[in-house]
Amino acid sequence: MIHQDKEVKNIKSKPKSSCCCSHDEPVHTENDGHDHGHDHEHNTERSWFKLFLPAIISFVLLLIGIVFDNYVPQSWFTGYVRAIWYAIAYLPVGLPVLKEAYESIVKGDVFSEFFLMCIATIGAFAIGEYPEGVAVMLFYTIGETFQGMAVTRAKSSIKNLLDQRPDEVHILENNTAVKVKAKEVQIGAVIQLKAGEKLGLDGELLSDSASFNTAALTGESKPDTKKKGETVLAGMINGNTIAEIKVTTAYNDSKLSKILELVQNATTKKAPAELFIRKFAKIYTPIVVYLAIAICLVPMLFVDHYVFSDWLYRALVFLVISCPCALVISIPLGYFGGIGAASKNGILFKGSNFLDSISTIQNVVVDKTGTMTEGVFKVQEVVVKPEFDKEEILKLVNALESRSTHPVATAIHNHVGQIDPSVELKDIEEISGHGLKASYNGKDLHVGNFKLLDKFNIPYNIDPSSIVYTTIAIAYDGKFAGYLTIADEIKEDAKETVSKLKSLGVKLTMLSGDKTNVVQFVADKLGITKAFGDLLPEDKVKKVNEIKAKNETIAFVGDGVNDAPVIALSTVGIAMGGLGSDAAIETADVVIQDDKPSKIAMAINIGKQTKKIVWQNIILAFVVKAFVLILGAGGLATMWEAVFADVGVALLAILNAVRIQKMRF
């Protein structure tokens, strides 16, 4: 839009494209996401009135002029008086465009849409078609203003996300709450968070429990109750009690900071259709100008009764019709709308190119733990042979597993309790892919999988494949002492995810480092036919490469550090952003903030709907413009048809593009 563009310059980092409506530039949020540009100004009726005021003045003057021309008999509204009247009507909407055209020419961008509109409307004045000259610029300006409103609406969900990080927090110093800048808070400080306040930094909950609204991160507004010791993230809103949180992450490294960075950079990665249209506009616009000159001048060589003003009028009509605004605006807006709709649902796309890619996915390969299951292990069963002291064995296992950061170790610790300080283990050794080994009172202790016992030739009298849960084998003093079974709960929407993906025609495969019978057990429960277990990270890479060898597109969904290689290898990498590792989140192309697998199908659906809308707009713009261009060149279209072909089609395309914001996925 003409007037609004000036106000949005402070949130753009790139120069304008050949179209005046380059609203596809990235949203930059200097000052930590609080540079709101003009958006807040538009929240009042007064601001909207101010925005439309130039168009209202021009419209009133144009209407009065048309009345004098056609309905009120008089003799004074002719000649210079009439020309001056329409010139005054033209200035409120025309001056900003003339200024922008001049600035574009100074920068070396001669063939901008501003330039086209100036030639067309000044040309109309030159041949005495004053009302049409004013009308073209008036409707063009109204169209651009509505486009700006559409862009603002498309940005709103992303802008809301960017507003979620508070600048200040209250930290406890000598039991007194002191307000400080969030950036200045050190790791280890304790934040006092009152009811209704947003958390500014990631931390660990010190209070016994607290309820948080996590909508800023997940798109889900229902309360999430956290218990003492659990992680809480920046952007979460405290419920109805005062909570204390120990800061564990610096301001710039918080999960929300990383999300904001992803969102800010998302629009810099263009989809192929966007890149094509931008290149197309740069070539197309000068060609159109030269064709318009040809339409005006070439007929004098072939037409017997050549009238310059008639052919100039046709050329001007041709220029107005040819403006590529509908394409240059509606296509990026469609993708921007898709990114906004996704972020509103807790799905972050790192670029519009990934919206395109995910719409064509044929295979979804999922990790098991943390993706289709909760990633929170619990001890299900403890079996210790009668000749061993169960309490002592568990005490030793707990002490040895405390040296590991694996979720299994956490599950054992939660089951057994505090580590006995009297247990002194020696010669502790981690055996990759097998487990842990140590010595206690001169006797060897082995804790791990059954391959660990095989490695040290320790016999056992059970069949490990008959146990469907993850099994931790225990041996002490060279003898099999027993085992623990540990299970991970399947996520409540995992089965629904499989059903939705199948309905989209997507093939599903599960890969996991867990043992094969556990993976197969989970896969059978979910209805996944292809499942593979006992995989190392390099084995997962091999499996993904086998699918890629069939020339099929793949989306890999994972959450761990060991998933980063396959996430990077796949067509679209998807990371679970709540529990996911930073490596997986940084490598991924799409981040699901609430760890819900059902968002995988939603992300694919958003991609498909976005692409459909973009192609609808491309076809609409090309068909209508081609038809009216032919009519204009043949003298069968007037400026009014030209206005429809330019502004009308742009508005239709934009209304179509913003539909995605209202869709339910």
TrEMBL record:
<dbReference type="InterPro" id="IPR036412">
    <property type="entry name" value="HAD-like_sf"/>
</dbReference>
<feature type="compositionally biased region" description="Basic and acidic residues">
    <location>
        <begin position="1"/>
        <end position="10"/>
    </location>
</feature>
<dbReference type="InterPro" id="IPR008250">
    <property type="entry name" value="ATPase_P-typ_transduc_dom_A_sf"/>
</dbReference>
<dbReference type="GO" id="GO:0046872">
    <property type="term" value="F:metal ion binding"/>
</dbReference>
<keyword id="KW-1133">Transmembrane helix</keyword>
<feature type="transmembrane region" description="Helical">
    <location>
        <begin position="315"/>
        <end position="336"/>
    </location>
</feature>
<dbReference type="GO" id="GO:0005524">
    <property type="term" value="F:ATP binding"/>
</dbReference>
<dbReference type="GO" id="GO:0005886">
    <property type="term" value="C:plasma membrane"/>
</dbReference>
<feature type="transmembrane region" description="Helical">
    <location>
        <begin position="48"/>
        <end position="68"/>
    </location>
</feature>
<dbReference type="InterPro" id="IPR001757">
    <property type="entry name" value="P_typ_ATPase"/>
</dbReference>
<dbReference type="InterPro" id="IPR023214">
    <property type="entry name" value="HAD_sf"/>
</dbReference>
<feature type="transmembrane region" description="Helical">
    <location>
        <begin position="110"/>
        <end position="128"/>
    </location>
</feature>
<feature type="transmembrane region" description="Helical">
    <location>
        <begin position="134"/>
        <end position="152"/>
    </location>
</feature>
<feature type="domain" description="P-type ATPase A">
    <location>
        <begin position="165"/>
        <end position="264"/>
    </location>
</feature>
<comment type="similarity">
    <text>Belongs to the cation transport ATPase (P-type) (TC 3.A.3) family. Type IB subfamily.</text>
</comment>
<dbReference type="InterPro" id="IPR044492">
    <property type="entry name" value="P_typ_ATPase_HD_dom"/>
</dbReference>
<dbReference type="InterPro" id="IPR051014">
    <property type="entry name" value="Cation_Transport_ATPase_IB"/>
</dbReference>
<feature type="transmembrane region" description="Helical">
    <location>
        <begin position="80"/>
        <end position="98"/>
    </location>
</feature>
<dbReference type="GO" id="GO:0015086">
    <property type="term" value="F:cadmium ion transmembrane transporter activity"/>
</dbReference>
<dbReference type="Pfam" id="PF00702">
    <property type="entry name" value="Hydrolase"/>
</dbReference>
<keyword id="KW-0472">Membrane</keyword>
<feature type="region of interest" description="Disordered">
    <location>
        <begin position="1"/>
        <end position="20"/>
    </location>
</feature>
<feature type="transmembrane region" description="Helical">
    <location>
        <begin position="283"/>
        <end position="303"/>
    </location>
</feature>
<feature type="transmembrane region" description="Helical">
    <location>
        <begin position="642"/>
        <end position="660"/>
    </location>
</feature>
<keyword id="KW-1278">Translocase</keyword>
<dbReference type="InterPro" id="IPR059000">
    <property type="entry name" value="ATPase_P-type_domA"/>
</dbReference>
<keyword id="KW-1003">Cell membrane</keyword>
<keyword id="KW-0812">Transmembrane</keyword>
<feature type="transmembrane region" description="Helical">
    <location>
        <begin position="618"/>
        <end position="636"/>
    </location>
</feature>
<dbReference type="InterPro" id="IPR023298">
    <property type="entry name" value="ATPase_P-typ_TM_dom_sf"/>
</dbReference>
<protein>
    <recommendedName>
        <fullName>P-type Zn(2+) transporter</fullName>
        <ecNumber>7.2.2.12</ecNumber>
    </recommendedName>
</protein>
<dbReference type="Pfam" id="PF00122">
    <property type="entry name" value="E1-E2_ATPase"/>
</dbReference>
<keyword id="KW-0547">Nucleotide-binding</keyword>
<dbReference type="InterPro" id="IPR023299">
    <property type="entry name" value="ATPase_P-typ_cyto_dom_N"/>
</dbReference>
<keyword id="KW-0067">ATP-binding</keyword>
<dbReference type="GO" id="GO:0016463">
    <property type="term" value="F:P-type zinc transporter activity"/>
</dbReference>
<dbReference type="InterPro" id="IPR027256">
    <property type="entry name" value="P-typ_ATPase_IB"/>
</dbReference>
<keyword id="KW-0479">Metal-binding</keyword>
<dbReference type="InterPro" id="IPR018303">
    <property type="entry name" value="ATPase_P-typ_P_site"/>
</dbReference>
<dbReference type="GO" id="GO:0016887">
    <property type="term" value="F:ATP hydrolysis activity"/>
</dbReference>
